Amino acid sequence: MGTTVDSKIAATETNAPSTSLTMTEILDAQSKAFLANSYPSAAERLRNLDKLAQALIAKKDQFVKSLNDDFGCRNRQETLLTDIFMVTAAIKHAKRELKGWMKPRKRDVPIVLGTGRAYVLPQPVGVVGIVSPWNFPLNLSLCPLTAALAAGNRAMIKPSEFTPATSELLKQMIAEIFATDHVAVITGDASIGKSFVHLPFDHLLFTGSTEVGKYVMKAAADNLTPVTLELGGKSPAIVAPDADVNEAAIDIAFGKVLNAGQICIAPDYALVPRAKMTPFLNALKKAVDGYIPAESIAKDGYTSVVNERHHKRLSAYIDEARQKNVQIIPLAAEITAEGGNKLSPVAIVDPPEDLAIMKEEIFGPILLVKPYDELDEAIKYINARPRPLALYLFAKSKSLIESILKRTISGGVSVNDVIMHNVVEDLPFGGVGASGIGHYHGREGFDTFSKLRPVFERTGPRTDRFLRHPFKQLHEFLLGILINY
């Protein structure tokens, strides 16, 4: 992000073309509109979700083109799967469950209070700020927006400047279906983003790197704004001694080929039994060749690295490993200079800990493969590092799977697969420790953008008043009974 803050930057144009508002003015307008309708009905919320889904589907081909322009090459089917389908799936799930999520949630009343009713009432929090990254600019903008709208809120979205064509099209789409005092998209560079996270939202969701997440959390603290931070880290894949290495390689390879590995929950490194390293690496190469044969890489079957800056960063990782004589295994056909910012997948085998790639999230088509001799060694290796956003486990034994799940901590887990826990809309998505704070998706997303308001309602005879002043010896006796454990 940038290094200066200008609180009066004109960040966007509203859907009234003649008016230009600052971010602060848009936030003020949304806050006032929220107070005028602070508990939208289920019917209103469902209409908002329908508008969003219909607009997205109507513009899906335009978004395919804009993302291809932004990346230099973004595979069409990947865009439809990861950016369009994921949003429509989230909307369908929210629509199906919304009325149940909105219902008061009954809680028990202790007997000492006598008769009464206790419940939790989910209420909208107000205006939600959403900061989304470039790797899945629709998915990671509109899935949080789906949760915010389902919960009855207003929202402001700041998409990444690294995907400008998509950000502008998103801004246009939102302006066509929502008033500015309901949902607004703020486009601009890093200085705009920095100003955005300093605004006094009622909740702020940020998806991005751990380092920037620290800055966002500090900025939000100035306003005591609650935050949900969806960060990253180095997500491991454990290939257990009893795993089928061919099956594991097929799934792990997919995690590195999809979107050219530019996924916050892509496997960063695989921990493989030393005796199975050669079969695993052979299977990995075969799997990648199957996903992206040479002709697919050369054309539009394989996505580019998003820009030259990130391409140079990833290439530097490979160059450093080569300079230190670390084994590098090409997993697919080499990409020629005409390939632009495409980067062919590689495996770096048994890398030393002092490599830069061992300390930083990869976010690209490079897989680190580390051997282990005993499973405990692999588990200790994971636990000695910051807690990852995802953990992948390939094993057959149910007891072994249960044991590893209990002995490790991560944001989410896919067993005998990669990434797919993120596709289960009814599962919460979020990190832990350095990989994030809080959750969204499904009911947890609805709850994140709601105030779960506790309510106690007095009903029936008021026997509770017996335990009020003036206190007497009988009260001492009764309190002794109540306190007894």
* Helicity level: 40-55%
Name of the CATH superfamily of the largest domain = Aldehyde Dehydrogenase, Chain A, domain 1
Main β-sheet: number of strands, strand sense, barrel status?
A: 7 strands, mixed
Number of helices, where a helix is a run of at least 4 consecutive DSSP H or I residues: 16
Strand content bin: 15-25%
- Shape label: globular
Structural class of the secondary structure composition? alpha/beta
Taking the alpha carbons of the first and last residues, their distance comes to: 55 Å
Describe this entry's structure for a reader.
The structure is a single chain. The protein has 485 residues and is of the alpha/beta class. The protein folds into two domains: 12-231 and 439-452, Aldehyde Dehydrogenase, Chain A, domain 1, CATH 3.40.605; 235-427, Aldehyde Dehydrogenase, Chain A, domain 2. The protein contains 16 helices and 18 strands. It has helices at residues 23-36, 42-58, 60-71, 76-102, 139-150, 164-177, 190-197, 210-221, 245-257, 277-291, 294-298, 308-323, 375-383, 398-407, 442-448, 473-483; strands at 12-13, 20-21, 105-107, 116-124, 127-131, 154-158, 183-185, 203-207, 227-230, 235-239, 267-273, 327-330, 346-349, 366-372, 390-394, 412-415, 436-437, 450-458. Strands 12-13-14-11-10-15-16 form a seven-stranded mixed sheet, with helices on both faces. It starts with 11 loop residues before the first strand and ends with a helix. 45% of the residues are buried. Residues 1-19 have low confidence and may be disordered.
